[in-house]
Amino acid sequence: MKKLILPILAGFLAFGAFADDEGSVDETLFEDNTLPQLLRALKDAHAVGADYWIYNDYAKAVEEARRLNKPIFVTFRCVPCEDCSSFDAEVAQGNEVIKELARTAFVPVRQVEMKGVDLSLFEFDFDLNWAAVFVNADGVIYGRYGTQSAEGADAYNSIASLRKAMVRALEFHAEYPGNAQQFAAKKPQPKPYRTALEMPGLPRKNRYRQQTARDNCIHCHNIHDAQQNAAYANGTFSREMLYRYPLPENIGLSIQRDDGRIIEAVNPAGVAAKTGLRSGDEILKVNGQPILSIADIQWVLHGLSNAGDQVRIEAKRQVSADATAVVLASIQLDSGWKETDISWRGSMWSLQPRPGFWAVGVEDSEKSRYGISPEGKGLHVRWINRGIQGGRASYESGLREGDVIVGINGKPLEWNEIEFQSNVRLNMKVGEVIRYQVKRKDKIIEIVTPLVGETP
Questions:
Q1: Residue 280 contacts by C-beta under 8 Å, 6 or more apart in sequence?
Q2: Strand pairing of 253-255 and 54-55?
Q3: CATH classification of 24-232, choosing from 3.40.190.10, 1.10.340.30, 3.30.70.260, 3.40.30.10?
Q4: Beta strands 379-384 and 404-408: pairing type?
Q5: In sequence order, what DSSP letters do the residues of 165-183 get, joined into one string?
Q6: Which one of 170, 189, 310, 337 counts the least CB within 10 Å of its CB?
Q7: d(CA 385, CA 395)
């Protein structure tokens, strides 16, 4: 339970303070004063001894890439976050195949905070705990790697598919600059800001401007937080912006996770079923953009309209032992096709309205004690954050730590702790009230709480 609760509680305290397991870090690793100051401040154990990585200095990487005519392999890693820690360790220095490719064929960069990252060049699914971008010295993006879902942080990432993405990036680079135009749409659209510190919706700017520490670095998901905060402030927020980087499954395609391009299955009930695409086809381009991983497919889908849009796929099919054919398919997407489970996203916690408290599910063995049926659910209120407006509203309306929520708006509770948090944010609005049916000691009481907005 500690692994789950720590990041969630931190999400209440501030946008970006995710799980920080400093106690498990070997402090003796950081006694060497020749190590980069930021590495020691963040206690970035996976970077110790991996000296072929350029540490958090993209400008230096560009100089090296131009001098050596190599592509740049940039990994983005939130060091304090526990998710993706094992995968990060393998990539940073654990896996010999990745190490050899990174060291000899790329200019590898380990980016560990978002403070100075150029957002006009680097844009990806910022809710990830680990991501990679392949780019050249001219700022041409060959592709992206890193995918996550409600299945878990590492459900789509693997050393096998990363290696294939790296090889494909090298193939793209070998053809550059003759193929440069194919990658034009992989570059982000212009923005009114260049870095996170210039984003109007980013809170705590003065603190972030200070020297970076484990509890003071701008995490990737803070970019989405800032975008959402700004949208609330200027009245442009809509649910549509929450359904970011949809998976290929949203268009009826499952991709082999250890490959990143080969179709594993076509959903017979999905919109792709009538296109002629089939298992084993290898996706080469989507809407004209070359593909090197699932994240590249998501990048294209992210830019399409949730109201319905067109997806054009160019794939390669093995038709015999020594022959392939090109398959062209066009998919018409229905309205609402992007909608998916966002409960895993770090940026979910900055959505409004916020209940302002954290509660854990009532254990099966305790349900009868609170009058909950064996199939029912209950939430035991553990902590009310009176540092935010939502928490103060909950407390002032009468909710207390130790209360057990057994119903909402007159109906038995049907949600676990994460479902409760996401459903309030997605399906309720600032200005509404929520009626909690609460078991306190031996009584059921009703607590009527206004759902309020937050000032970043």
A1: 262, 263, 317, 318
A2: unpaired
A3: 3.40.30.10
A4: antiparallel
A5: HHHHHHHHHHTTTTTGGGG
A6: 189
A7: 9
In Å, the largest CA–CA distance within the chain is: 75
Q: What is the pTM of this model?
A: 0.90
User: How far is Cα 272 from Cα 323, in angstroms, rounded to an integer?
Assistant: 25
Q: Which amino acid is at 381?
A: V
β-partners of residue 310 are 332
| DSSP bridge pairs for 130 | 77
352-450 CATH, one of 2.60.120.260, 2.30.42.10, 3.30.70.2740, 3.60.70.12: 2.30.42.10
**Bridge partners (DSSP) listed for residue 285:** 290, 314
- For residues 129 and 116, give the distance between their C-alpha atoms in angstroms, rounded to a whole number: 18
Angle at 456 between CA 344 and CA 218, to 5 degrees: 60
Distances in Å between the alpha carbon of 401 and those of 4, 131, 398, 415? 19, 38, 10, 19
Rg (CA), the chain: 24
Percent of the chain surpassing pLDDT 90: 85
CATH topology identical between 24-232 and 352-450: no
Q: CB atoms < 10 A from the CB of 293, how many?
A: 28
Provide the b/e sequence for 70-84 (b: ≥16 CB within 10 Å): bbbbbbbbbbbbbbb
For 344-386, what is each residue's pLDDT tens digit? 999 999 999 999 999 999 999 999 999 999 999 999 999 999 9
How is residue 28 written in tokens? 């003796």
Q: Which two tokens stand for residue 186?
A: 């992989």
The percent of residues in the chain predicted with pLDDT above 70, rounded, is 94
Which CATH fold topology does 248-332 show?
A: Pdz3 Domain (2.30.42)
pLDDT score recorded for residue 32: 86
Q: What SS3 state is found at 55?
A: strand
Query: Rounded distance, CA 444 to CA 229, Å?
Result: 37
Q: Which amino acid is at 143?
A: G
Strand partners, 72: 107, 135
